[in-house]
C-alpha cells in the first residue's frame, strides 16, 4: 500500500460539471452579458427633442444653452436650444366652453438636447442600458434643479 489515494472521476461527476457550465452559460445569455462585454457598438451624438410643462422660474432659468443635464449619475445630454412660453391652463367656464388662461409664474419649455446614444435594432439606448424613445419621460437634474421632461422625438 502506497498511502496515496487516486482520484477517480465517475460519470456523475462529469454530468455535474456539465450542468454547472450550462448554468453559467444560461445566466450569461439571460442578462446579455456576452453582448455587453464584446459589443462593438459605439455611442453617437443624437438630437433629442423634449417638452416640459408648467416649469417654475427657477427651472426655466436652468434651461440655458450649453447646460449639461444628468440622469441619475449618468450624463443625459447637453442642451442645444430651448424656447419657453408662459404656461397656459384650460378650464371649462359656466357655459361649458373651454377657456384659456395664462398661468403666471409658470412656463412651458420645448427644446433639443444632444445626447450620446447607442443605436440598436429596436431604438436608442442611453448609457447602453436605458431605452429612450418618443413618449418616454425622464427626471433630469441640472445643478440644484430637478425636472421631468417628456421626450417628443429621438434622432430628428
Report on this model:
The chain is of the alpha+beta class and about 160 residues long. It folds into two domains: about 10-40; about 40-155, no CATH class. Helices cover about 20% and strands about 55% of the residues. The chain contains three helices and eight strands, in the order ααβαβββββββ. Strands 1, 2, 3, 4, 5, 6, 7 and 8 form an eight-stranded antiparallel sheet that branches. β3 (about 75-90) and β4 (about 100-120) form a beta hairpin. The longest helix is centred in the first third of the chain and has 20 residues, at about 10-30. The chain is elongated, with a radius of gyration of 27 Å. The mean pLDDT is about 85. This is DUF4330 domain-containing protein. Keywords: Membrane, Transmembrane, Transmembrane helix. It comes from Candidatus Colimorpha enterica.
Amino acid at each position: 500500500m502506497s498511502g496515496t489515494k487516486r482520484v477517480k472521476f465517475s460519470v456523475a461527476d462529469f454530468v455535474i460539471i456539465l450542468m454547472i457550465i450550462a448554468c453559467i452559460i444560461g445566466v450569461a445569455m439571460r442578462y446579455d452579458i456576452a453582448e455587453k462585454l464584446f459589443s462593438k457598438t459605439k455611442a453617437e451624438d443624437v438630437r433629442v427633442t423634449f417638452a416640459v410643462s408648467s416649469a417654475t422660474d427657477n427651472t426655466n432659468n436652468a434651461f440655458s444653452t450649453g447646460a449639461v443635464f444628468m440622469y441619475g449619475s449618468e450624463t443625459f445630454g447637453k442642451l442645444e436650444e430651448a424656447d419657453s412660453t408662459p404656461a397656459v391652463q384650460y378650464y371649462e367656464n359656466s357655459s361649458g366652453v373651454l377657456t384659456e388662461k395664462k398661468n403666471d409664474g409658470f412656463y412651458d419649455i420645448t427644446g433639443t438636447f444632444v445626447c450620446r446614444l447607442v443605436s440598436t435594432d429596436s431604438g436608442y439606448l442611453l448609457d447602453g442600458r436605458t431605452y429612450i424613445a418618443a413618449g418616454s419621460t425622464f427626471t433630469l437634474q441640472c445643478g440644484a434643479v430637478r425636472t421631468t421632461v417628456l421626450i417628443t422625438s429621438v434622432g430628428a
